[in-house]
Amino acid sequence: MDVRLDCISNIENKELKITGSKSESNRLLILQALYPEITIRNLSNSDDSKVMQKALQSTGEEVDIHHAGTAMRFLTAYFACKEGREVLLTGSKRMKQRPIKVLVEALRQLGCDIEYEGEEGYPPLRIKGSIPNSNEVSLKADVSSQYISALMLIAPSLPEGLKICLLGKVTSVPYINMTISLLRDIGVVASFDGNNIQISHKKEIAPVSLVVESDWSSASYFYSIVALSDNRSVSLGSYKDHSYQGDASLAEIYRQLGVETIFSEHQITLKKTDTLTQEIKALDLSNSPDIAQTIAVTCFGLGLACYLTGLHTLKIKETDRLEALKTEIEKLGGKVEVTNDTLKLFPTENVLENITINTYDDHRMAMAFAPLALRKSIQIHEAEVVSKSYPDFWSDLNELGFKVSEI
Ligand SMILES: O=C(O)C1=C[C@@H](OP(=O)(O)O)[C@@H](O)[C@H](O)C1
Ligand SMILES: C=C(OP(=O)(O)O)C(=O)O
């Protein structure tokens, strides 16, 4: 499905309810499989959380997690430590290009039995579940934090817990902190002091009901919309001012882009202000990689220069997000330079009209470019990709007054 977004003069002041964080949801689903005493509220309705639920319920030999990175990584550790279970864990074409060697080698250090079914270092994986024979592991921490969270999530179910030694610079740190916080919420003793993580064994937990905060990465598209709008506000629920999600840094980042965040009991209100920076000089996004596309496109729409750093993980996500951003922004008349971990956007006065944005099977490409409809009419190719994290995205845009037409 392709959609056309017609240029609207402004958005309506509305209140939207955003689905639960997919990162928190997918962690809690693994923890719930290990500790059924957990009840989850406001679970994400994303495809990634649905495939996680389905995989955890399946009894078959082949488990297909499609595009879901967290499901691939978390389930590798989960099935590897599930005694007696044998699975072929596979995913989409892109998933078979997303590296998993660091995690597989860490699990092999623990004595797990995992083989590559295709290319060495990549899914699909043939996993024969067993109880690990060691309680210590070390792994590279600069490729993806998901490998680390995967080990942390199964750690309390191991007979002696787990000590994890992180090698090199640790990337996407807030996601590791999120895992620690959720483990503590269910009563597990867990610590993270820079390069060492220690998680104690927990046989059973007391019944606990946890509410997933709404997804901050999804909120980023509304920050962009408000930044590109003319004097409007949007309210989003349900959010807290002490979030487990690193992407809550949006509130601080978008202050420079003319958006103020007002926290009330269960929601945030994003309000347009007139404090707009001249340029984003050097913004390190190694702690919040998922909002890089949104920020780059907002700056493009505002005609600002920006220089984003810490983007080394973007090349191994749903697509090579650095190349995809460069290609699509340049189609719209912008100029972008990328390296392996940076993106430099030059200021552009004019956004070209009626351009079709390719989405490369990446939900965030579709959602990051949509707010540009506040500048010029735009088309989004394969718009259904949004369901990976935010199935209601197009109907929510419609609610705000965007004219969204299927073409
Ligand atoms: O643990 C998580 O829930 C995630 C960690 C991040 O990945 P990396 O650690 O690979 O950067 C992030 O990009 C992804 O969307 C979700
Ligand atoms: C990178 C992402 O997801 P994953 O790695 O879990 O596929 C994302 O949602 O932007």
Helix content: 25-40%
User: What's the architecture of the largest domain, going by CATH?
Assistant: Alpha-beta prism
Q: How many distinct beta strands?
A: 22
Q: How many separate helices?
A: 12
Radius of gyration: 21 Å
What class, by secondary structure content? alpha/beta
CATH topology group of the largest domain: UDP-n-acetylglucosamine1-carboxyvinyl-transferase, Chain
Describe the structure in brief.
By secondary structure, the protein is α/β, with parallel strands linked by helices. It has helices spanning 22-34, 47-57, 69-80, 101-109, 145-154, 173-185, 216-228, 250-253, 292-302, 321-331, 363-369, 393-399, and strands spanning 3-6, 14-17, 38-41, 62-64, 86-90, 113-116, 125-128, 136-140, 162-167, 190-192, 196-199, 208-211, 233-237, 257-263, 267-276, 279-284, 305-309, 335-338, 343-346, 355-357, 378-380, 403-406. Helices cover 30% and strands 25% of the residues.
